[in-house]
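[Automated response] Your request has been received and processed.

Submitted sequence:
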Amino acid sequence: MSTWIASMIFFPSGTYDLVPEDLGLSYEAVALPISHATTLRNWFLPAPEDKGTFLFLHGNAGNISDRLFKAKGWVERGYSVFLLDYRGYGKSTGKLHSENDILQDAREGWNWLTREKKISPDKIILYGESIGSFPAMALASEHQARAIILEAPFTSFKDLAPRHYPWVPGLILDIILRDFEFSNISRVQTLQTPLFIMHGTADEICGYEMGLKLYEKALVTKEFFSVKDGGHNDLPFRAGQDFWSEPQKFIEAQTR
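Generated structure:
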């Protein structure tokens, strides 16, 4: 059943629509072996300046090539970006069968930055886009990173499911989502990392109120950036340069 449920949650693409060279970005191709059947294939985009490094954990559709536009904005501002593709996405092999798989993949990305690149945790910015907010928040609960940036996050799949599957009885949803709880709300008060949330007021996938609820529950230094009329996938276009400049101001205000 987990494979069937995963197919309803994750929508990976194996095709790169862009590669870093297309946007004039230098990069390092990074392979992270997880098991004999699973290897994550990722891109590390170095910035000329050394303001910090993003661990970019993307949403449930596409792959890292679809996030190059966002990453380029950060590289231009002096931040390196590690774009990580979960198993089954892009050129990464294997498949996601539960929330634990996506957590393991994100932890491998963190370990590569801290162990192989020797990047101090206080130089790492965790970036969670939509479903990527879940592994980002897990890492921010386990480590003291520089900051965590959440784009269009959700509270939990238990809260999301009735919005998208209103005809399915609640008890059935609870059984179906047993291995896919993706509960951000249960972690938000354990964060060890300053939190910045950006959310569109017209988000049709993860309601605006979900981002607000996470913000209200957080106990760390925090900021909420509301994007008027922003949907789930158009925040860079609705917010313009503020999409990068607002979280950048927050990041640069965090010193250890």
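Summary generated for your ticket: Residues 152 and 199 are 5 Å apart (CA to CA). The beta strands are 11-12, 28-35, 38-45, 52-57, 61-62, 79-84, 124-129, 147-151, 195-200, 222-227.
If you did not submit this request, please reply to this message.
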